[in-house]
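>> received
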Amino acid sequence: MTEVNWQKSTYSSAGDGNSCIELAFMGRTVALRESDDPRTVVTTTPAKLGAMLRSIKAGQLDHLAAIPET
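>> returned
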């Protein structure tokens, strides 16, 4: 099995307690994982990841993070 080269954002600082999303390219697939739970890996295509990132930047998914009113 080939070793996966995980990369994290340069905006993330080093050290304990700094959880972030890490990315790795696996052939034609992009793998994502949280640094604080590296055993759970989600895979997608570069095109789908790009579409999600554009949606996030445009604010189209902000409603998913909203706290419901009680």
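>> Residues 46-57 form the longest helix (12 residues).
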